[in-house]
Amino acid sequence: MRGRTRAVGRVRIADVAQRAGVSKGAASFALNGRPGVSAETRERVLRIAADMGWRPNTAARALAGGRSDTIGLVLNRPPRVRGVEPLLQHYLEGMQDELVDHAITLRMQVVSGHAAELATYDQWASGNGVDGLVVIDLRVDDDRPRALQTLGLPAVTLGDPRYTSGLPTVWTDDVGAAHELVDALVALGHRRLARVTSGSRLAYSRVRTDALTEAAAARGLPAPAVVQSEGGSAAAPEATRQLLDRPAADRPTAIVYENDVQAMAGTGVAAELGLDVPGDVSMVAWDSSGISRLTRPTLTVMTRDARAEAACAVRMLLELVEGAPAQQLQAPTARLELRASTGPAPDDDRRRPPLSLPGS
Amino acid sequence: MRGRTRAVGRVRIADVAQRAGVSKGAASFALNGRPGVSAETRERVLRIAADMGWRPNTAARALAGGRSDTIGLVLNRPPRVRGVEPLLQHYLEGMQDELVDHAITLRMQVVSGHAAELATYDQWASGNGVDGLVVIDLRVDDDRPRALQTLGLPAVTLGDPRYTSGLPTVWTDDVGAAHELVDALVALGHRRLARVTSGSRLAYSRVRTDALTEAAAARGLPAPAVVQSEGGSAAAPEATRQLLDRPAADRPTAIVYENDVQAMAGTGVAAELGLDVPGDVSMVAWDSSGISRLTRPTLTVMTRDARAEAACAVRMLLELVEGAPAQQLQAPTARLELRASTGPAPDDDRRRPPLSLPGS
DNA sequence: CTGAAAGCGCTTACAG
DNA sequence: CTGAAAGCGCTTACAG
């Protein structure tokens, strides 16, 4: 069934070369846009290849050391959080947007563990399995940028340059966004903020938490309570309970979640505890999966175009593969979109004096 | 930067063979579990390969006509519905679950258009780019099963056998599920059902709609109103408005959506129209992304393990590649999980005589 | 049961 | 600017 029977009618580069009256090598040069062949020859070869329906054999190309027209993505997640959460969903969509226009394949490998991830990169590098990589889920102590540099594999990441170790990146200014968010909450009378994070070692999570803390300090607010919700959105209810299950004077009046699924879960917990959203506590989601208008109450979110960012990262990667220089591209900063889950802080919060003074 | 420099320290099958004192061919046989080599030789080769850290070069293997340790998935979706909707999300997760255990790569190609999809299959088949395929989004008039048979590409699909043209499949009995659902709605006093579908040509959507219609007829209910919501969840609000924006006597008292995102959107529209869920209208989602417990009201859903189904499909595919016979595997039928979005039909509906008699 | 050889389709130095 | 040849790492008939 498999084996060495060539698919019927499959046209090889040798067929194109013969028909064009040139050598295989010349045809290859023409087809790959390399110098060493006259303009008219190139054009003829191209036309004949199109006529005959030639398409490169990816395996042969890869084996010979050429382009594989494939980019790689490794997903390293423990099974229990292997869900496709909102941000990854947008990233996948954005990558698809760009790939479909370039007839590029996405090679996706799921691994459980850091060692397995590096082994995958090693194998891809040595087998020309991919032309380049998109690296996501950057951590604060990530050694993948360095490993990839050693392997000589072009790679682009999505995340704040301070954690990318020089890897080309598409990023957004979450620090600026955090300040806008805190300003808006302060304007609503909030002083006791809280933050539910996806994981303490995820770079983007860290950047946001740090920025929120700084912004709060700059406005003279007490340091936001920070609760880790490792293990995906499933842990968000527990994190929320931890924050809300205390006397009103201690309770945060606004919680900032990593994404809207977490915020929905948190809103449910608030209801269970007899708290009104936004009457008693305001809820904000940073990343949105697009359901923020559909929830009751509708969710206030930090909006940015993660999908476009991922598309942009892929474009950058393809250019990088072509030899373009590495860059750090800043995408538009997230903007606050106010909806029904946020409102003025509860009255008691406004009547009391600040709990602490500026300058943490 | 790229080119013919072999990655440092990369061990080839020839290195393994030399160290084991056998020919390359013998080593290949041993490594691939084929007959033609003694048990002790095989074991020695295997041990040495492991010691030396040998891993197959995928491209070389593919080119020589062997296993590529890759399975393919083509996503053919117009850009505007290129979102990762709940069902696809579960499928991706389930495929990942199975792939990670087998060190298999997923080759994913996004295309826009049927012709491009078939061209991709053709290229993969002729280049040994994949060992097999998972085919999703089966349509009622799908010619992909036949095309794949012609290409000789092993493939497994997810969907009702009546639309798979003999392709091996993992499927669930949506007809049985529809009957359970209608029974439950009838028990709550509902008589005017409605159905919002993902698309009239999607096989699973068609099966469900037909089954709901049959089940309604069997219970003596009028035929459910059916509204297409092509273009993803974005169209669900419009579809819902169409159903609910009529006099109470004409209005459905229960709407069955394709997934929970649609149902959330529909619930929002009901609120806009001043209708209470479930007081005036009950809402049911067929596929759930896991947020059905988080919405307000919580959503009644048809629960099944789509993730496990996808994992099972991949397992079947890998066995098929190994030469196992094709099969049709029936996964557990979806069960109804009643939550707050469904309740007794509005009173006026019970007081009136049936609108029609059994036997559509 | 094993070895030596050809071949998969392409790219790329190397001569002309 | 072009041709002829070697080689990428593997698999698989074909002889022994």
Task: Explain what you see.
The structure is a homodimer of 360-residue chains. The first copy, chain A, has three domains: 13-55, 434 Repressor (Amino-terminal Domain) (Orthogonal Bundle), CATH 1.10.260.40; 70-172 and 307-333, Rossmann fold (3-Layer(aba) Sandwich); 174-303 and 336-347, Response regulator (Rossmann fold, 3-Layer(aba) Sandwich), CATH 3.40.50.2300. Mean pLDDT of chain A is 88; it is low at 1-7. Chain A contains 13 helices and twelve strands. In chain A, helix 1 (13-20) crosses helix 3 (39-52). With 360 residues, chain A is an alpha/beta fold. The longest helix of chain A has 17 residues, at 86-102. In chain A, the strands form two sheets. A six-stranded parallel sheet of chain A has the order 2-1-3-4-5-11, with helices on both faces. Chain A has a six-stranded mixed sheet with strand order 7-6-8-9-10-12, sandwiched between helices. At the A-B interface, helix 4, helix 5, strand 2, helix 6 and helix 11 of A face helix 4, helix 5, strand 2, helix 6 and helix 11 of B. Strand 2 (105-111) of chain A pairs antiparallel with strand 2 of chain B. The first copy, chain A, binds a DNA duplex (16 and 16 nucleotides) through residues 3-4, 6, 12-14, 22-26, 28-29, 32, 34-38, 41, 56-57, 59-66, 127-128.
